[in-house]
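pinned: reference chain
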Amino acid sequence: MSDAVLEPKRTAEAPAQAQRPVPFRGGGFKPVERGGIGLIVFIVLIGLAEMGTRQGWISPLTLPRPSDVFWTLVEFYQTGQLVLNILPSLTRLAVGAAIGAGTGIAIGLMIGLFSYVRAGLVPLVAAIFPIPKIALLPLFVIWFGIDEGSKYALIAFGTFTPTVVATYGAVDNVDRTLIRMGQSFGLSWMSIVRKIVLPGAMPGILSGLRISLAIAIILLVAAEMLGAEYGIGAYILQAGSLYDLDRLFAGVLILSVLGVLMNSAVGWIERRVLAWRV
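pinned: its C-alpha cells
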C-alpha cells in the first residue's frame, strides 16, 4: 500500500530532475577576461605612492609624487617635446623589431621544417643567444656608424634570437598525430604546413613575439643613450644626469605605456589569428 502511494510522487519528481540544467565543465582552463581589475591595481598603487610621498613615508629623493610626474608629462606634451622624442623612438622600434622578428620567424620555421637547416643553424643560434646584446652596441657603432644604422641593427639582433628560438620550439610542439593524420589523408607537404603546422605553432610564435618586443624596448633605450639627440632613451639619460626624478619617471612611464600598447597589439592579433581555438 505504501509503495503504491509513493510511486506517483517519484514519477512526478522525475521530470523536474531531468530538466535541471547541467553546468558547463568544458572550459579547458580558457582565460576569462576580468575587465577593470588591472586598472584598479594601477590606481591603488599610484594612490599609495601619492599618499606615501605626501605624508613623508617615502622620501622625495627616492620616489617623486605621481601627481608631479603627471604634470611633467602634461608640460612635456604642451611644449612639443613628446612628439619630438617619441617619433624617432617609434621609428627605430618599428624598423628594428620588424627586421628582427620577421627574419627570426622565417629562420625559425626553416629550422623547424628542414633537418639540414636545423643541423646547421641551431648550434649557431645557441651560441649567440646568451650574448648580452647591449654589450655589442660599440661593435655595431663601428660596423654601422653612430647614426640610425647601429640602432636598427641592435634592436633587430636582440629581437631576432628569441624569436628564432620561440618559433622553432613552437613548430616542434605541434601535435605529431595531426601531421600523421594529414599524411594519411594524402595532403601535400605544403598543405600540411599551411593547415596544420602553422596554425598549431602560432600560439607559441606569438608568445615569443611578446618577449621579443619587450626586449626590443629595452634595447631601444640602450641604443638611444649612445649618440642619439632625440628619443625616449636620450630623454631619460638627460633627466638622470640632472637627477630630475620627475622627468626620469615620466620617461619610464612612457616606456611602460608603449609596452602595454605593444602587448595589446599582440593580443589583438591573437584574437584574430587564433579565433579557431575554443
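why pinned: The mean pLDDT is 84. Residues 213 and 262 are 7 Å apart (CA to CA).
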